[in-house]
Specification:
heterodimer, A: 378 residues, alpha+beta, seven-stranded antiparallel beta sheet, five-stranded antiparallel beta sheet, 11 helices, 18 strands, 28% helix, B: 243 residues, alpha/beta, Pectate Lyase C-like, eleven-stranded mixed beta sheet, 3 helices
Chain lengths: 378, 243
């Protein structure tokens, strides 16, 4: 497919073949930042097994690396040891590598053909960042793009601080067992069960898609992918994983971190009101809504989607403008739950104090109580 | 009454048990449902299912006469292509409830999601009916070809009781909504029609049942407040593909 310079001796992946197909998403957070084991999110997503087909499952977990919280945790897939050596050499040149280790996995009979899975706790070298006039975050973003698009057989599965993505080909509950997620503790977890639309499942193509500490799990199909992707290229984001969800992740990063839009505004860019709704708005709102549609027209995500964005500071769940995919939310004490189906919430929270189905394009926002901004400046 | 525990059963296992038990049991209670799909699918009259927990998508799809009572909420696709029977939901229901429904009645205590009643149809005595206690999302009665939708809007203002694009593509059936709803909420294919004697009779009958099922005081609902919406024509897109 265009854009990707990599051609590997491997099975066909995203973009090589089209397979028509639903998905399942689930997100759970504690608004006070209290940690809980990955067991809960596995239980929740496993209820929606029939929404997936075993061709992709994954989790994003926040708060799992408190001992390395000042380092970027780079989760990597390698197709061979040679691919790994090349990337490691590159990392040593550009980063302080505090630790590099194999991510512990268990043998699960149904999980086959796993790549080499490693994590590195790294910091960009200060003198290099200064040289290229970049903040460490910006430097990190460029490196993730560079590794994904230029190194053979090497894919970044996550690159944020004190967080990580754990994904692969299989049903999500099996992937959870494979990575032994019960032994991790986080304050925010998201999960995805995949039923690949359009393309085959492969390890790099499983959700969540991440950049820095942003992670996106997505049910649906973004038909504006081509427009979004070309728009993102203007801002030097390279979509190389050939999946529409990747574009959604980079859009969030651009709108929230680089353009510093308030979260609600960023959500309005992705799922804006119809022009006729804008006409009925009060004058000031109308002006803002019009301006957003004009400036960020190419950031509109068209097509059916329900998306959960995870970040260090909280999570956001949002639907497309005409609600072509399901989304249910619930609260109980400090816990916020969102999922494709209510059953997946009730399995882990028998009596929520409130259950609701958000209206189209209306974000459900769970913010960590201690933070006042969505973007930590770095 | 037969009691089943559905927890950890797949939808296939559970539905196989229900189909086996239904011909000889008048009442079956199913506890701990966790999103199992197609409960009550194709089930004939003579059996009532009492459901606890969350029944999954496409509850009562193609159901043909049985009765279902859900103690709490239901998910998407309730009554998909249902032919006959009755469903009473003591909570909310999700999107596309009554999709392509051909007969029978569904009562929902509170709100329903998007595209409810999409492409419902009727023929002769077979008239499907949806009675919604709370509010409905956008595209209520989209492409509706027949049947009846009644929205009580309890707890909501009339404007909030339905979403936008109500009745888009509608070419049969009728929608009754309590209170004045602004015109922009409706699709281009819908017009308001005068309420007649027979409309009041129908409303009275169905609302009485709603009040009985959910223990709501009938006197709080004034039949005079209802407005009736019908399609402008039977072939709204007749010219669209003809050139």
């Amino acid at each position: 497919m265009w854009g990707s310079r990599k051609r590997l001796n491997r099975k066909p992946i995203e973009g090589d073949v089209r397979i028509p197909s639903g998905c399942a998403v689930s997100g759970i957070m504690n608004k006070k930042g209290k940690l809980f084991s990955g067991e809960t999110i596995i239980q929740s997503i496993s209820i929606m097994r029939d929404r997936s087909n075993g061709l992709g499952g994954g989790f994003a977990a926040y708060g799992i690396y408190p001992d390395y919280k000042d380092f970027y945790a780079l989760h990597m897939f390698f197709e061979s040891e040679e691919n790994q050596r090349e990337v490691e050499l590159y990392l040593k040149e550009n980063f302080l590598v505090e630790k590099g280790e194999r991510i512990p996995t268990r043998k699960v009979p149904v999980i086959l053909d796993s790549p080499i899975i490693y994590r590195y706790f790294i910091k960009p070298r200060a003198e290099i960042c200064e040289d290229v006039c970049m903040t460490p975050d910006e430097f990190m973003v460029r490196q993730v793009m560079f590794i994904n698009s230029s190194f053979e057989g090497a894919y970044v599965s996550s690159s944020g601080k004190n967080m990580g993505a754990f994904k692969g080909v299989g049903y999500p509950e099996d992937i959870g067992e494979f990575y032994d997620l019960e032994s991790y503790k986080g304050y925010l977890w998201t999960a995805h069960g995949r039923f690949p639309t359009n393309t085959p499942g492969w390890w790099g193509g499983a959700h969540p898609f991440t950049l820095l500490d942003w992670s996106v799990v997505h049910n649906g199909e973004i038909s504006s992918y081509g427009t979004n992707r070309r728009y993102l290229e203007e801002f030097e984001y390279e979509c190389s994983l050939q999946t529409d969800t990747e574009a959604a992740t980079y859009l969030f990063d651009m709108l929230l971190r680089r353009h510093r839009l308030p979260l609600e505004t960023a959500c309005q860019v992705l799922a804006p009101p119809f022009w006729e709704e804008i006409e009925r708005m009060p004058e000031k709102e109308k002006e803002t809504a019009r301006a957003l549609r004009m400036v960020y027209g190419k950031g509109l995500l068209n097509g059916p989607f329900s998306i959960i964005l995870g970040s260090t500071n909280g999570m956001v769940a949002i639907n497309d403008r005409i609600k072509l995919r399901p989304l249910v939310a619930a609260e109980q004490g400090d816990m916020l739950y969102v999922a494709s189906e209510e059953a997946a919430i009730i399995e882990v929270c028998a009596c929520p104090s409130k259950v609701w189905t958000p209206r189209a394009g209306q974000p459900v926002i769970g913010r960590l109580e201690e933070v006042d901004s969505w973007v930590s400046v770095c | 009454m037969k009691v089943l525990d559905a927890h950890k059963l797949s939808y296939r296992e559970l539905n196989d048990i229900i189909k086996e038990e239904a011909p000889r049991e008048k009442e079956i209670k199913i506890k701990n449902l966790r999103g199992q799909r197609y409960i009550g699918g194709t089930l004939k009259e003579g059996c009532t299912l009492y459901l606890d927990g969350i029944p999954g998508n496409d509850l009562a799809s193609f159901m043909n006469g049985a009765h279902i009572v859900v103690s709490g909420n239901a998910q998407d696709g309730v009554g998909n292509t249902m032919n006959k029977g009755e469903i009473v939901i003591h909570g909310h229901a999700g999107d596309i409830m009554g999709y392509a429904m051909r007969g029978g009645e569904i009562y929902v205590k509170t709100d329903v999601g998007y595209r409810v009643g999409i492409h419902m149809k009727e023929f002769g005595e077979q008239i499907p009916m949806l009675i919604i206690g709370g509010s409905a999302g956008n595209f209520l009665g989209e492409y509706m070809a027949g049947g009846v939708i009644i929205v009580l809007g309890i707890g909501d203002s009339p404007e909030e009781s339905i979403g936008n694009f109500c009745g888009t593509g509608m070419h049969g059936g009728r929608i009754y909504i309590r209170g004045e709803v602004p015109a922009f909420k409706f699709g281009k294919e819908v017009k308001e029609a005068a309420m007649e004697e027979e409309d009041y009779r129908l409303l009275k009958d169905k609302i009485k049942k709603y009040c009985k099922y959910f223990d709501y005081p009938m006197k709080k609902i004034n039949l005079e407040d209802f407005h009736k919406y019908v399609p402008i024509g039977s072939r709204p897109y007749g010219n669209l593909y003809a050139y």
